[in-house]
Structure formats: C-alpha cells, structure tokens
Amino acid sequence: MYAATVSDVDGIRLLQPDTVAAMTMVQTDRTRMHGVPSELLPYTKNLFNMSLGFWRATPPISSLLGPASFGHPGSGGSLGAADPESRVGFGYVTNLWAATLIDPRAIELTSAVRKCLG
Question: Which residue of 1, 30, 63, 89 has the fewest C-beta atoms within 10 A of its own C-beta?
C-alpha cells in the first residue's frame, strides 16, 4: 500500500503527488501527541513530527526513508513507510512481537533502505 502512494504498482497509483504533498505537511511540529495514554507521555512528548495520520521523519528518533518520507509503526515492531522523493514504499511485519514504541529492527531496515537509495 505504501509503495502505491508514491509510485505505480502494477499500474495502480493510490494517491496523486499533490495529495501526498498535502497529507504529509507537518502538522504537529513535535508537540504532545494527543490520544497517547498518560503513562506513555514521558516517552512521546516532543519526539514526533506528525502529518495528517502519519509520522514524519523526525531525526534522531526516526529518520524513516528521508526528509520527505512518511509512515507509521504498528504493534510489535511493524512499520509501513514511503518516500515520495525516491518513490519507494514498503511494509514490514514481524513474527516476533516487540514491546517498544520504535523497534530497533525497523530502524535497521529503514537505515539499510536509505543506504541502498544512496
């Protein structure tokens, strides 16, 4: 799904480039994340750039695929991300659940993808 938001996949493009640009404009500027349980607030306060429904690259916490990239982690370490500039997107799903907000395996994967992209 993420790949089809930034490029054609089997002839299908889910979102036009101007839609991606509009939905990925940073909305939160690292402010407090609303809807996060109060016990997690110390871990999430001022950490994330958010757009309309997606995390944005927020170094050093998460660089995703680059400055224009967007995505969202899932339960247990999974991650979906896309980068409009390189036109690459992917979904990563684990079979071993991890109890972390940002999984080291997903960080290593995105780092390897960035390295491959140059």
Answer: 1
Nearest to 97, CA basis, from 74, 76, 75? 76
- DSSP bridge pairs for 81: 71, 90
| Secondary structure of residue 39 in the 3-state scheme | helix
Distances (CA, A) of 107 to 22, 31, 34: 26, 22, 24
pLDDT tens, residue by residue, 41-90: 555 555 667 788 788 877 766 778 888 899 988 878 888 999 999 999 99
> How many Å apart are CA 57 and CA 69, to the nearest integer?
6
* CA atoms of 53 and 32, how far apart (whole Å): 15
- Chain center to CA of 63: 8
110: enclosing H helix or E strand: helix 104-117
Which residue, 117, 4, 107, is CA-closest to 60? 107
Q: Which two tokens stand for residue 21?
A: 């640009």
Please tell me whether residue 81 adopts helix, strand or coil conformation.
strand
